[in-house]
Amino acid sequence: MNLKNQKKLSAQLLKVGINRVWFDTDRLEEIKEAITKADLKGLISSKVIQAKPMHGISKFRTRKNKLQKRKGNRKGAGSRKGKKTSRLGRKEAWVSSVRTQRNFIKLLKSKEVVTKKVYRDIYNKVKGGYFRSRRHIKLFLTEHNLFKKK
């Protein structure tokens, strides 16, 4: 039983796509005999031919993923696009690391763990980008015995 034509005409009348047209399977013979738009309109009004409801796109997964990202998950190497510097700029990274190192050596000077001369030397090294981190400064100070003797 070929109802392709009826389906196409019904879709036009219902103003939906062909895939959304639904035929009552018990009354297919009746639908087959309907060949004009007027016949099909009668079948539509008697609910033999109907339009299926629209399919929405669920936001459930999106919301769930957003929640996970807020917690800090799903942000591994596989989810990242662009260079490392596109997430945290080169300058921001530099400023942050230099501030940390300067605060650390300031603390050492205020606690009188290092002399003013050593502080100045370390300060200039920090400015020149010699140290990678606070830990590297500690390592440097212990290796070169620059801590003040009590």
Task: Describe the structure in your own words.
The protein has 150 residues and is mainly α. The protein folds into 2 domains: 4-51, 50s Ribosomal Protein L19e, Chain O, domain 1 (Orthogonal Bundle), CATH 1.10.1650; 87-143, Non-ribosomal Peptide Synthetase Peptidyl Carrier Protein, Chain A (Orthogonal Bundle), CATH 1.10.1200.60. It contains 8 helices and 2 strands. The protein has helices at residues 4-14, 28-33, 37-45, 60-71, 84-87, 90-110, 116-127, 134-143; strands at residues 21-23, 49-51. Helix 1 packs across helix 3 (37-45).
Largest sheet: 2 strands, antiparallel
Reported by name, the CATH topology of the largest domain is Non-ribosomal Peptide Synthetase Peptidyl Carrier Protein, Chain A
CATH architecture of the largest domain: Orthogonal Bundle
Structural class: mainly alpha
CATH class of the largest domain: Mainly Alpha
Keywords:
2 strands, two-stranded antiparallel sheet, Non-ribosomal Peptide Synthetase Peptidyl Carrier Protein, Chain A, 50s Ribosomal Protein L19e, Chain O, domain 1, 150 residues, mainly alpha, 57% helix
Secondary structure blueprint with pairings:
Layout (H helix, E strand, L loop, with lengths): L3 H11 L6 E3 L4 H6 L3 H9 L3 E3 L8 H12 L12 H4 L2 H21 L5 H12 L6 H10 L7
Antiparallel strand pairs: 1-2
Helix pairs in contact: 1-3, 6-7
Could you provide a short overview of the structure?
With 150 residues, the chain is mainly α. It contains 8 helices and 2 strands; from the N terminus they run H-E-H-H-E-H-H-H-H-H. It starts with a helix and ends in a 7-residue tail after the last helix.
